[in-house]
Amino acid sequence: MPPLVDDGLLEIVGFKDAWHGLVLLSPRGHGTRLAQAHRVRFKFHKGATDHAYMRIDGEPWKQPLPTDDGKVVVEISHAGQVKMLATKDCIAKGIHESSPAISAVHPESSSIEDTDDDFEEERRNFGAALSFRYMGDVNKQ
Questions:
Q1: Is 140 left (phi over 0), alpha (psi -120 to 50) or beta?
Q2: Where is this region: Disordered (predicted)?
Q3: Most buried of the four, 32, 45, 77, 85, by CB within 10 Å?
């Protein structure tokens, strides 16, 4: 399923290290798409490194990892949705977009109310961009 900013799913994207994570900030930068989920749980055990680089909604952090036989559990879930501001030329796509491709993915989203111009701008969201790639597309560029 293509990434949509208002589908209620988390986009799980992997990157090799902090430098690769910085590439994600560039317009054509992308990570390795791992999954889409309503929630995710990471269990970290003692390993070759003492930290992992993580980021949620653009906010990075360095997650300390166990140095003994313990484990660190990080749980992430969708906590709700807020309205976001977007320009008219925003490339993000949402469930309520008028694109035929989106309506084919979510047929329940195409209805008489969806064509009401008063709410069209309100339905626009900011987020899922063209730089998001499936794992098979990573080496094609």
A1: alpha
A2: 101-120
A3: 32
